[in-house]
Specification:
Elements lengths: L9 H21 L5 H19 L4 E9 L9 E7 L7 E3 L2 E5 L3 E11 L1 H16 L25 E8 L6 H15 L9 E4 L3 E4 L4 E4 L7 H18 L19
Parallel strand pairs: 1-4, 5-6, 6-7
Antiparallel strand pairs: 1-2, 2-5, 3-4, 7-8, 8-9
Helix pairs in contact: 1-2, 3-4
Length: about 260
């Protein structure tokens, strides 16, 4: 069954095109700050606020770390999407969360301007996310063909940048080349990055060595949104209930007469 249509919804496209414009406007406002860290925080918050308006109610979005039952940690992540319907964060401190790996559904690393150094940092972070063991098994890579098996659990790592320091000329190939360079440093395969999105240029799917150049008519946010929502709905059905017993050691029962 073909999933796309020859007659797309004009209203649906317009809503998401407007959302992309709002995101771009928020990024421009953030540019008024001199401190790079503040600019980055403001742009990440703008994306978070936009996603909160469109995420299904079972999901929440925040920033912080994820941890598994072996105490392996990811380090700080810009945006984490988690299942708040079945698990609360293990810890909430100020603006940051500590999540059990089983509740983690997606990671979005937000960058004002994508550079080689930023991609190198993302590759290291993505390798830490992939090494977590939810349900005592590592997260699986995104399948390139067909559906993922029911006993495989995924956590896409998405790099979302507002701009790139590369020129528009042959941008996709140049960006892909340095994505491969970053991933090779951590000895990771191309599936560590689910998507690399540059809002004003396009997106790359490293695992299938493919790119989509930004279309002025619909922008690139539409593709990002549809992919994310489809994944969340499918993954929600696939995951079993979270057993927090895996994180604790209980005392021995004494049987009474």
């Amino acid at each position: 069954m073909k999933r796309s249509t020859k007659n797309p919804s004009k209203i649906f496209h317009q809503v998401l095109a407007d959302a992309e414009k709002k995101l771009a406007m928020a990024a421009n406002v953030a540019g008024s700050f001199q401190h790079r860290g503040i600019r980055g925080d403001e742009r990440a918050d703008a994306l978070a606020q936009l996603l909160r308006q469109h995420l299904p109610k079972d999901f929440s979005i925040g920033k912080g770390e994820a941890i598994d039952y072996l105490d392996s940690r990811t380090g700080q992540l810009d945006l984490v999407i988690y299942d708040s319907a079945t698990a609360a964060p293990l810890l909430t401190a100020g603006e940051n969360l500590l999540l059990p790996a089983e509740a983690l559904y997606a990671v979005i690393e937000v960058k004002s301007v994508l550079t080689q150094d930023e991609l190198d940092a993302c590759a290291l972070a993505a390798s830490k996310v992939r090494s977590l063991k939810p349900y005592k098994h590592k997260f699986s890579p995104t399948p390139t063909k067909g559906e993922a098996p029911n006993d495989c659990y995924r956590c896409p790592y998405i790099v979302f940048a507002f701009a790139s320091n590369l020129s528009a000329d042959n941008w996709a190939q140049k960006e892909f080349d340095r994505v491969r360079k970053s991933l090779s440093v951590v000895q990771g395969d191309l599936s560590l990055f689910d998507r690399v999105i540059v809002l004003d240029k396009g997106l790359i799917r490293p695992q299938i060595s493919a790119a989509r150049i930004r279309d002025e008519g619909s922008g690139i946010f539409l593709d990002f949104y549809i992919h994310l929502m489809n994944f969340l709905m499918k993954e929600k059905r696939r995951r079993p209930p979270i057993d927090m017993q895996a994180y604790v050691s209980t005392g021995k029962w004494i049987y009474l007469n």
